[in-house]
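Re: the 200-residue chain
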Amino acid sequence: MSFGDSNNPYGQPQGQQQPGYGYPQQAPQGVPPQQGYGYPAAPPVSPYGGGGYPGAITEMPGSVKAARVMLFVIGGLQMIGVIFGVLGALSIAAAKEDPTLKSDVQFQQIADMSTGAVWIATALILAWGVFAIVLGAKFGSGGNGVRIAALVFGIITAILGLYPFVIIGLAHTVLAILVAVFVGKSDGAAWFNRNKHAQY
């Protein structure tokens, strides 16, 4: 039997050429090529990067970055408040030493209470500002606890900005509301709940 024989049932069908030795066979037209053996197909690309695996966010979303900056701004405003508090307490203490006011018993009593209240308020302002700055610094490595703390901080700051510090607290209120909104959004939740095995 010969492969060239047209009557041979085991031979090469007529009209087709045998592929050359060393050359890969091509699929017939209209038939999609099959996946070869070897490496598997790559996973789909994630919009946040990280190779397409769920939760592998590698870059902080823009809204979370904005919330972080706003926390730093709130901290800076608090430090300005601390400066004014210290100056106010020192001014009251200096007024107490004024010879014309030393004989005024009512002023001395008010000044004694005011000085203590101003120092306490200054300490609270300082603590709230430090908390805002530390909270903003934790945005890079913190988890869902930092997100919840930022939400609570934003809500409390917004309320305090409305009452009792209405006039000077307006900037705090706007910034605090934006912080709460930005960390409460879905991309904020995705950032704080991301895989922490890789530090950023």
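The first helix runs from residue 62 to 96.
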